[in-house]
Amino acid sequence: MTDNEIIARQVRQIVELNDELVKLKDGIRKAIMHMVCVGGPLNDNKLKFTPEQQKVFQTILDELE
Question: Does the predicted TM-score (pTM) go above 0.85?
Fold first, then answer.
């Protein structure tokens, strides 16, 4: 394998990883918005989540942030 082939492979990998990172960050942002939206489980508890369920949501939120 030549140096140019190695560099091309690395560039392709970097581009693919950057694309994946953008998608993952967008998914995390959307998940956080679902968890803290008005009427969501961690805001006014409109959906009547139990305290145990709210703790789970808060743990997930903490990990995402």
Answer: no
